[in-house]
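Quick start: what a row looks like.
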Amino acid sequence: MAAVAAFAERGALDRTVQLSYGSSPAAAYCTQMMADAVVHTWDLSRAIGADERLPGDLATAALREVEPYAPGLSASGLFAPAVEPPADADALTRLRCLLGRRP
């Protein structure tokens, strides 16, 4: 909850935050956290058998965030290797595949 409170403060997105890998603009970190929440919302929905659909614009924003650094994620040991998405995959499916989740 401390992170939510920090992001809610006036000017929060104009600040710099200290992360485990160094300094980062707060706005960039907020975008990373949004993408993380999108993926884990899907994970939890799948796990409990709930509706896995998410708003397309949210999935697109998360995909845009992850695409630039996705190739290095599986090397971290925290993600499975990327999976080839179906040719007609929507943004959420492409995001999941980039992060090693099977469609």
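That is the whole record. Helices lie at 2-8, 26-48, 56-66, 91-98. Residues 26-48 form the longest helix (23 residues).
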